[in-house]
Design a protein that fits this description.
Layout: E1 5-10, E2 13-14, E3 23-28, E4 34-36, E5 39-45, E6 50-52, E7 57-58, E8 61-62, E9 70-75, H1 80-87, E10 89-90, E11 95-101, E12 112-120, E13 123-124, E14 127-133, E15 167-176, E16 178-181, E17 186-188, E18 196-204, E19 207-208, E20 212-214, H2 221-230, E21 238-241, E22 246-249, E23 257-264, H3 273-283, H4 293-300, E24 306-309, H5 316-325, E25 329-333, E26 339-343, H6 388-391, H7 398-401, E27 421-422, E28 425-426, H8 427-468, H9 471-480, H10 485-517, H11 524-555, H12 559-575, E29 578-586, E30 589-597, E31 602-607, E32 610-614, E33 621-625, E34 628-632, E35 636-644, E36 650-656, E37 671-674, E38 679-681, E39 730-737, E40 741-744, E41 747-758, E42 764-775, E43 780-787, E44 790-797, E45 807-815, E46 821-832, E47 839-853
Parallel strand pairs: 3-5, 20-21
Antiparallel strand pairs: 1-3, 1-11, 2-10, 4-5, 6-9, 7-8, 9-14, 11-12, 12-14, 13-14, 15-23, 15-24, 16-17, 17-22, 18-19, 18-23, 21-22, 25-26, 27-28, 29-30, 30-31, 32-33, 33-34, 34-35, 35-36, 36-37, 37-38, 39-47, 40-47, 41-46, 42-45, 42-47, 43-44, 43-46
Helix pairs in contact: 3-4, 3-5, 8-10, 8-11, 9-12, 10-11
Protein name: Tip attachment protein J domain-containing protein
């Protein structure tokens, strides 16, 4: 067999043009020149490259993710010209693939052993060394790079300049907010440029909001922020704007606003560990995941998860380690450069290595436990930071509960606590009595241990007989013991007596304790007598126990126990004629299948986390996982279960085949039913399918009827009565507009007039006047609105200004009680000041009359 073939394929950039070019290098093998896969590979690789990797052990545990593998290839061409040509390329960050294997047959290439990016290409002594690592190295770079500009608005106040923008992915709880706009009580919880899915709860110092109002997307982030600034928050609550990751709180005195968040929407909200890992790698610009791998991992670990990215030093690799490690998953870089998520499992070795050198770097203590988290609290608040309503269920403040400390002095009707005596008896004597009682309790405990030992001996005897005799032998044994029934009755009687004595002893012990604490009139002498009496009773009890042990040893298993065993055995034989099962038990986690049949009914039971039936040809399958039944087809699927989908409330869903049940939504399905009884049918119904009784009152709203869809043919004559039209719902408008009018002093002038026809007696007239006017200094003008010859409104205007100042004026009157018919409406003005030289100009006067009908 010839030497292994080494092939390197890279894509550096030509410095002169910036364009990438494919470079192919080769070494080893036995066939020259190197022509493989329709390409020529340049010779010069002298020896097998060395691949260096590591097995991390940080913070007391092995890493759960991929460890970057690095390698270097030494290429020594046959001419300086070839070396100069390769040196003219820009190699840094160029994609590179290394293949190592036997000499291939025609059209084939050796397998890929490492895919990554070039780090450096130093050249010395006629040799170019290509140093490169796999894509995991890119994931070791900081994940967060966006920062607030500090220019106001969504970029934060000036002191926020340079602050990192945190990000929320999946479901996160009790995330602290920061005051983005203190003047308007607006708090920010994440990067405003990355919309969130929802705010599930908002709290002030731990106290939940009384109510929350949702502010939707207003077309742009800036418009949404402006609308949030103008919004009015309900008392005790707030206005949430998930599209800009902000909340407006009702009070300016809030000190610690926190929220439960369903994080970034991105291309679609996700909250399983595998899907979040995919989002994090995409945010870091990392490699793609192996096709179908994320969907498989989601089925394995479908529970909601989340991650709050807030540290500018955190890397994508460290987040993947923790996020996947917490659910017993790990991630690896495949030879092709893609990422795969795998489940921790015991199995056969898949690779081996030869140790070249071994050395000890550090020692670690054994790891016996691992802390698991549930709904990680992003802000652990001390008691002093919590609102009083969180600490006291009935709202009672702490001051009303004082004094609560032992021995406190209280004024008023109370006195200082006596810490020297117990109802006049010295505390030292009471303490001695309690000590004696403790000794008695120890004796009682010893008696209980003796009882337990006797019961254990009985159990051992029963187990022995059950293991060495069948049902028939047990029956014979029961018959042989029939003559011992009287003795067994004596034993039972003895047990009853002993149990009664033990109960009496326990009751006396309890009463003795209560006597010391509650009955302060008892003397210490009485306590001593009780202790002495109990000690005597205990001695008698121990003697009875010894006798019981001897009796039990001689009689073996009691008749009642044998009868129970025979009855149980006969029952099993009578009810179960056939049983077959296969189970697998790993660390107490059981998976299996069982068949039971008693001759009348049969049972088929499967115990598993995931149950799946899949077509050998692919495309079709039936899967049960997490309480959800997924009937999967190549293009369409049906799901049935409880509380699934992005809204977490679906019971039944049909539509295009999703990547996982967690990704389906009401918008993506053609048919669905949720837990609230709501449903949607996306298709059409045949004529006659929906009758009058199928539509509830109020079921057809404005959004169900398109514009101009109701025509004359849809409304019968006299079908719309007055009760169907609300007050002010129908308006009839008349108006007149005039030009410039000059007004002399002490003369009333009609500025505008029009005649209207009032249709209904119970309607009202709304009269509005708009005008531009100017007055000479010290002039005063009185304006009037007439209906016929009756003044229905008047007002005096005396502005300060000169005859060059124009002002816009508006007047309004509402008149009710006029009869139906014709009415003349006029707007008039009188100018007066006692001087004939005063004047007024009025222009562009509009007189508008509206009839508002029922």
């Amino acid at each position: 067999m010839g030497a292994p073939l080494i092939l390197i394929e890279a894509s550096p950039r030509r410095v002169s043009t910036g364009a990438t070019e494919t470079v192919r290098l080769a070494g080893g093998g036995g066939i020259k020149p190197y022509h493989y896969g329709g390409h020529h590979w340049r010779a010069g690789i002298a020896k097998l490259p060395t691949i260096v990797t590591a097995l991390d052990f940080e913070n007391g545990e092995f890493g759960t993710g991929a460890v970057p593998a690095a390698s270097e290839v030494r290429w020594s061409p046959s001419s300086k010209a070839d070396l100069a040509e390769m040196a003219a390329f820009l190699w840094k960050d160029a994609a590179i693939t290394m293949r190592i294997g036997p000499e291939p047959t025609e059209g084939e290439l050796p397998p890929v052993v490492l895919t990554g990016k070039v780090l450096e290409t130093p050249i010395a002594d006629g040799v170019m060394t290509i140093q490169f690592s796999d894509p995991a190295a890119d994931l070791k770079k900081p994940l967060l790079t966006d920062r607030f500009a500090g220019t106001g608005g969504l970029e934060g106040p000036a002191d926020w300049a340079g602050r990192i923008k945190q990000r929320s992915l999946g479901a996160v709880w009790n995330v602290p907010g920061e005051p983005l706009d203190p003047a308007n009580n607006i708090w920010c919880f994440a990067d405003p440029s990355r919309p969130l899915h929802a705010f599930d709860a908002v709290r002030d110092r731990g106290a939940a909001a009384a109510s929350l109002t949702l502010l939707g997307w207003q077309g742009s982030a800036e418009a949404t922020f402006a609308a949030l600034q103008a919004a009015e928050a309900p008392q005790g609550g707030g206005v949430v704007a998930p599209s800009i990751a902000c909340v407006k709180w009702w009070s300016a005195h809030a000190r610690a606003i926190t929220a439960d968040i369903r994080g970034e929407v991105g291309s679609g909200y996700v909250e399983t560990s595998a899907e979040l890992a995919e989002r994090i790698v995409a945010a870091a610009g990392g490699p793609a995941f192996t096709a179908g791998n994320v969907a498989q991992a989601t089925i394995l670990r479908p529970a909601p998860a989340g991650w709050l990215l807030k540290d500018e030093t955190v890397t994508a690799a460290s987040v993947l380690d923790q996020l996947l490690g917490n659910v017993s998953l790990l991630w690896v870089i495949e030879a092709a450069g893609t990422i795969s998520i795998r489940e921790w499992a015991w199995g056969a070795p898949v690779a081996s290595a030869r140790i070249v050198k071994a050395s000890r770097v550090a020692s670690f203590s054994p790891m016996g436990t691992r802390r698991l988290g549930y709904r990680r609290n992003e802000l652990v608040m001390p008691r002093s930071s919590l609102a009083a309503i969180v600490l006291y269920g009935d709202g009672t403040p702490i001051e009303d509960l004082k004094p609560a400390q032992p021995g406190a002095d209280v004024t008023g009707d109370n006195t200082s606590k006596d810490t020297e005596n117990v109802n006049g008896v010295p505390a030292s004597q009471v303490a001695q009595a309690v000590s004696d009682l403790a000794d008695l309790q120890a004796d009682v405990t010893a008696a209980e241990i003796a009882v337990a030992a006797a019961e254990a001996q009985i159990a051992d005897l029963f187990a022995t007989y059950g293991d060495t005799a069948g049902a028939a032998e047990s029956a014979a044994l029961a018959a042989s013991h029939a003559g011992d029934a009287a003795a067994s009755a004596t034993v039972a009687s003895t047990q009853q007596v002993i149990a009664t004595d033990a109960a009496a002893a326990a009751l006396d012990s309890y009463n003795l304790t209560a006597s010391i604490v509650a009955d302060q009139s008892d003397t210490i002498g009485t306590l001593s007598a009780s202790v002495s009496s109990q000690a005597s009773a205990l001695a008698t009890l121990e003697t009875s126990f010894a006798s019981l042990n001897t009796t039990v040893a001689s009689h073996g298993v009691s008749i009642s126990q044998q009868t129970t065993a025979i009855t149980t055995l006969n029952g099993n034989v009578a009810t179960l004629f056939g049983r077959w099962s296969v189970t697998v038990n790993v660390n107490g986690h059981v998976t299996g299948v069982a068949l039971n049949n008693n001759g009348q009914t049969g049972a088929f039971a499967v115990l598993a986390d995931v149950f799946s039936v899949t077509s050998p040809s692919g495309g079709y399958g039936l899967t049960w996982v997490g309480g959800i039944l997924w009937n999967r087809g190549p293009s369409n699927s049906v799901l049935m279960g409880h509380n699934f989908g992005t809204s977490n409330d679906l019971l039944l869903w049909a539509g295009p085949t999703p990547s996982s049940p967690a990704n389906v939504s009401k918008g993506s399905g053609v048919f669905w039913v949720d837990k609230n009884g709501s449903a949607q049918f996306g298709g059409s119904l045949p004529p006659g399918s929906v009758g009058n009784n199928e539509l509830a009152n109020g079921a057809i709203t404005g959004v169900k009827i398109g514009n101009l869809e109701v025509t004359n043919a849809k409304i019968g004559n006299l079908q719309v009565g007055t009760s169907k039209i609300g007050f002010d719902a129908v308006t009839k408008i008349n108006y007149v507009e005039t030009g410039l009018i000059y007004i002399n002093n002490n003369v009333q002038v009609t500025i505008a007039s029009l005649t209207v026809t009032k249709d209904e007696a119970d309607s009202v007239l709304k009269i509005t006047v708009h005008s531009n006017a100017r007055l000479q200094d010290n002039a005063r003008r009185t304006n009037y609105i007439y209906v016929g010859g009756t003044v229905v409104w008047s007002s005096t205007t005396w502005p300060a200004g000169d005859d060059t100042t124009w002002s816009t004026e508006a007047y309004k009157a509402v008149v009710a009680g006029l009869s139906a018919g014709s009415h003349t409406i006029s707007f008039r003005t009188t100018l007066f000041n006692g001087a004939t030289t005063n004047f007024s100009h009025m222009s562009n006067t509009i007189l508008e009359v509206e009839e508002r009908k029922r």
